[in-house]
Amino acid sequence: MSDAKPVTPAAGDIVVDVGKSSISDLWKKEDYWAIWLGFLALIVGVVIFFNNAPKGMDEKIANANAIMAQEEAAAPFKTIAWHKAAASKSKLQAAKSDTGKAVKSFTGKPHKWSSNPLDSFFMSSDKAAAKSAVAASKYDKAQEATKAALATAIAKETAAYEAGFNNATLNDDAKEAIGVWLKAKKAESKAKGKAGVKPFNQLVKMGGLCVVLILFFGVGMTAMGQSLPSFAKGFVFVFVVAIAAYMLSAQATMKAYGIGYAAWAIAIGLLISNTIGTPNWVKPAVQTEYYIKTGLVLLGAEILFSKILSIGVPGIFVAWVVTPIVLVTTFIFGQKVLKIPSKTLNMTISADMSVCGVSAAIATAAACKAKKEELTLAVGLSLVFTSIMMIVMPAIIKGVGLPHVLGGAWMGGTIDATGAVAAAGAFLSEQALYTAATIKMIQNVLIGVIAFCVAVFWVTRVERQAGNAVGIMEVWYRFPKFVIGFIVASIVFSSIYGSLGPDAGFALIDKGVLAGLTKNLRGWFFCLAFVSIGLATNFRELKGYFKGGKPLILYVLGQSFNLMLTLIMAYIMFYLVFPEITARI
């Protein structure tokens, strides 16, 4: 027997402890099932849409690119022929194939309605014909307006051409006229959609989707030791509430005010849980993290490196430099100045507000093991301020006359939810929408990085006790594993997109796998998660966290700092350091 004595690690030493993990985690843990299910949905999407590519896609892309290159060499601005060629490429969408339309429709949500909620679910042939007839006259007028705008644009462009494109005034006149034509063309396209209303019965399709999702999520629930029949029974209730949330958000007035499905889902869930109480038979399906983690894996496929690089260094500075500064500053302020008792609540709110809202809050809460009540509070604050900011910020930008690239970057870096960012950007212009959405996409990449850093910080600093060694594997145990799926999905789809090229990638991935399947599914998964948050939350449990109003103060002051710093950084990067990139947007 050896006389050697065990060595006691000094405080703060890092040791390896592998006693908490096993291979069975791959089929028994929620995070891994989120990865497997997310990957399954993405694979199904690839199989469906890659096998339904638009006919003659490669030839049409080559012809369009040849025309665009020719026009770019001939004129100092984007000509009518250039825009027509670009439009011909944008029409190449795998989601518009018969199979693609069927899949997209099956996973669709309740339709927009004004006064009758049933219009959200049903549209008879007679009613569709009547709506189309009413809109037909507007479509005819839109067509005439487009023809007139095109004739003017052709005349202005011809004048510029005859001057050899050497007359700046004529060039500017041509560009302005082409812009008017493009706006008229967009209005015509919108009118055409309203004039082509088709009958539908979305309720039947959503019933079928409910069955599919029960089986989809039920596989993991069964593997994790839960009863499939119990889960299925409760899931129907949760799914019905999700339908109600989507239906209410589709009401015309609610859409105008930006009150989305997330707010309705949580509100309905809270109403049930704080009045009659969430029935016990529903609780097996109240699986907040299971749903949203699976949705976040799908989100990874939407974050493509080629799009991140399109805005380049200024976008990276706005998203990747400002965000960590705001997060760390807000957390320190909450601890040192506001003295918020719960570090996990402080960190969850800080990440929610500075990174990208709910997605970051879920990942960060898992990394620091925040309580579900703390996560609910952070998410609730985020949803309230997101609804306000998506309406107020575009109005401010428009009112003070900020350039739309600057305004888009400002909104993309500060408004929490990706959907709200897109809506706010679209309110201003295509340029603002593109900039805002790309900045938000770049920022979303930080979800995994922030989760990892929080896990390391919590293990090595917050929860370390004097005299105790820190197991290096504790970081791995704490790290949310679904983030790995998020990162892998991003890398894989970025690689596929790169190998296809931007045009085929747009047709098969952007307007195929993503638009035709996974974005709709992700929306449903997130909605189910928000319903679950509401159903699992009781106001009495949240009461203690609102003491002194500190969480609200933290969010308001942190977001104010975020708004100021993001605007300054966006101006410096886009207009002082890299104006040539701004000119290309």
Description:
The strands form two sheets. The chain has a two-stranded parallel ribbon. The longest helix has 38 residues. The protein has 585 residues and is mainly alpha-helical. The chain folds into three domains: 411 residues, no CATH class; 37 residues; 74 residues.
Outline:
The chain has 585 residues and is an all-alpha fold. It contains 28 helices and 4 strands.
Characteristic key phrases:
single chain, 585 residues, mainly alpha, 3 domains, two-stranded parallel ribbon, two-stranded antiparallel sheet, 4 strands, 76% helix, globular, disordered N terminus
What's the helix and strand layout?
Layout: E1 14-15, H1 25-28, H2 30-50, H3 57-74, H4 80-90, H5 98-106, E2 122-123, H6 125-162, H7 168-195, E3 200-201, H8 202-223, H9 228-249, H10 252-256, H11 261-273, H12 288-302, H13 305-311, H14 313-320, H15 322-336, H16 343-356, H17 358-368, H18 372-400, H19 404-414, H20 418-428, H21 430-444, H22 446-462, E4 470-471, H23 472-478, H24 482-500, H25 502-535, H26 539-542, H27 550-577, H28 579-584
Helix pairs in contact: 2-8, 2-12, 2-24, 2-25, 3-4, 5-25, 6-7, 8-9, 9-11, 9-25, 11-25, 12-24, 12-25, 13-21, 14-21, 14-27, 15-16, 15-27, 16-17, 16-18, 16-22, 16-27, 17-18, 17-22, 18-20, 19-20, 19-21, 19-27, 20-21, 22-23, 24-25
